[in-house]
Amino acid sequence: MLKFLCFLLFLTPLCVSCSWWLVCSLLFLVSFFYLFSFPYFFCWGSLGYFFGCDVISYGLVFLSLWICVLMILASESVFRSGYFPGFFLFVVVFLVTMLYCTFSSIGLLSFYIFFESSLIPTLFLILGWGYQPERIQAGVYLLFYTLLASLPLLVGILYIYSSLGSLCLFLLRGGVVGGLFYVCMVLAFLVSMPMFLVHLWLPSAHVEAPVSGSMILAGVLLKLGGYGLLRVFPILSSFGFGFGIVWLVLGLVGGLLVSLFCMRQTDLKSLIAYSSVAHMGMVIGGIMTMSYWGVCSSFALMIAHGLCSSGLFCLSNISYERFGSRSLLVNSGLMNLMPSMTMWWFLLSACNMAAPPSLNLLGEVGLLSSLVSWSWYLMLVLIFLSFFSAAYTLYMYSYSQHGSVFSGLYSCSLGYAREFLLLFLHWFPLNLVILSVDFVVFWV
Fold first, then answer.
1. Smallest Cα–Cα separation from 44: which of 244, 234, 225, 224?
2. Which parts of the chain span the membrane according to its record (predicted)?
3. 3-state class of 131 per DSSP?
4. Alpha helices (H) along 36-176
5. Under a CB-based contact definition with an 8 Å cutoff, are residues 299 and 59 in contact?
6. CA distances from 435 to 102, 104, 424 (A)
7. Per-residue model confidence as pLDDT tens digits over 167-182
8. How many CB atoms are closer than 10 A to CB 123?
9. How confident is the model at residue 185 (pLDDT cuts 50, 70, 90)?
10. Is residue 107 within 8 Å of 164, Cβ to Cβ?
11. Of 130, 91, 120, which Cα lies nearest the Cα of 214?
12. Cα 167 vs. chain centroid, distance in angstroms?
């Protein structure tokens, strides 16, 4: 694990010299090297003093590397405008290093430190390359929600150390119970996902962030909460069965309400951001069942949502660069202006509504079966949640692609080869993984 970390650290001098495409190519290279280091074991491996890897951390580390490469590929406007491109590269490399350390940590305290450190470069992305003056308020929301909820987590980690005498993730097995301790350990991760009622920081951050900030927020940072829940639940297993129903019902009902919010959104990025909250509500429900099938399906949906939502934000940014607006009213009739992009809108929208053969289908079908087997009463909520998930995706696709062009432009605007490559690198892994899904579920 240390060799990949050293590779990322030694990219820093290239960021200072502003070697844009060289940094992008080297991050592609380390992604492919990491791809072929799949952990063929049931438990932790590649262990050192601070870092290790199992199947869950492997998938999320690879997702982090992949999304950060695509962030650089999507942000060529920063390079062309000359607005501190070297510092932008440094922020991206620092962010992927923090995420790598977060998912590879084998100690709870180091996980907490890197978990909080990953917010710093995200805040720099929003404040430095955001679009509107309101980005300062969005940054305050981001820090306020996450830091306020994560302070009790630090207290809970210290209490674990005083009770069990160890913070190694693979050595922690039960022994610590209590309602207040349970809330302290779970709340920070539920806010990070985010759960309904504490989700208001996410649409604000997405709307004000640049395309790179939206990609890393939707692609990886929302998965930190799910990863943290999977890591701390072995400690909370004796207490989590009784309290899990609260978060499960709140996540599913909140996902249903947020799906209704999506039906009345006029901002393209805001619609995609709210859809992330709805999908994460199902992930919370699957994790809270504490069943094998629920955990596997939640992990699959986290990976699928990271790729699909990041690709949709890239598509909205491509339209924004042409029209200068994210309003659905202005962006209507894109089929007349950019017919070559309509296919990518269709493919990624189909993945967002869990159409085959995407990985979203596997994750949602597994979550539906695990939640219904947990309680038959959840079937009514899940029916409406699945229906409105398809409804707001169709609303987004039909309203943006069909109709008359607001600006009166009917000329054909072709996309760049970089944009087609960017969208292909989102869509292809999303539909390729399902070919070996039995192997992935077996190892998880």
1. 234
2. 7-35, 55-74, 86-106, 112-131, 138-160, 180-202, 239-262, 271-293, 299-320, 332-355, 375-399, 420-443
3. coil
4. 55-74, 76-81, 85-104, 108-117, 119-129, 135-164
5. yes
6. 29, 27, 17
7. 888 777 766 667 788 8
8. 20
9. confident
10. no
11. 130
12. 26
Q: Where are the alpha helices (DSSP H) in 217-291?
A: 223-262, 268-288
Phi, psi of 411 (to 5 degrees): -75, 155
**Tokens at 329, concatenated:** 């009213």
Cis ω for the linkage preceding 194 (within 30 of 0): yes
Q: Which of 70, 163, 149 is nearest to 115 (CA)?
A: 149
Phi, psi (deg, nearest 5) at residue 372? -70, -35
Rg (CA), the chain: 21
Q: Is 408 helix (H, G, I), strand (E, B) or coil?
A: coil
pLDDT per position as a tens digit, 320-375: 888 888 888 888 888 888 888 899 999 999 999 988 888 999 899 999 999 999 88
For residue 42, what pLDDT is reported? 56
Q: Are 222 and 118 in contact (CB under 8 A)?
A: no
- DSSP character string of 368-390: HHHHHHH-GGGHHHHHHHHHHHH
Longest dimension (CA), the chain: 69
Q: What tokens appear for 143 in the block?
A: 């820090």
Structure tokens at 58: 């492997």
Per-residue pLDDT tens over the stretch 296-328: 899 999 999 999 999 999 999 998 888 888 888
Q: Examine the pLDDT at 136 and tell me if it is beyond 60.
A: yes
> Which pair of tokens denotes residue 435?
């070919």
- Closest Cα to residue 193, out of 275, 266, 280, 120? 280
Across 296-365, where does the E strand assignment appear?
none
| Cα–Cα distance for residue pair 33/364, rounded to 1 Å | 30
Binned at pLDDT 50, 70 and 90, residue 412 comes out as low
Tell me how far apart the alpha carbons of residues 174 and 186 are, in angstroms, rounded to a whole number: 15
| pLDDT tens-digit series, residues 36-86 | 877 665 567 777 778 888 888 888 999 999 999 999 999 888 888 777 888
Kindly state the tokens that stand for 314.
């890239």
pLDDT at residue 411 tops 70: no
DSSP structural state of residue 169: G
* pLDDT score recorded for residue 340: 84
Rounded Cα distance, 118 and 105, in Å: 14
Amino acid at 417: A
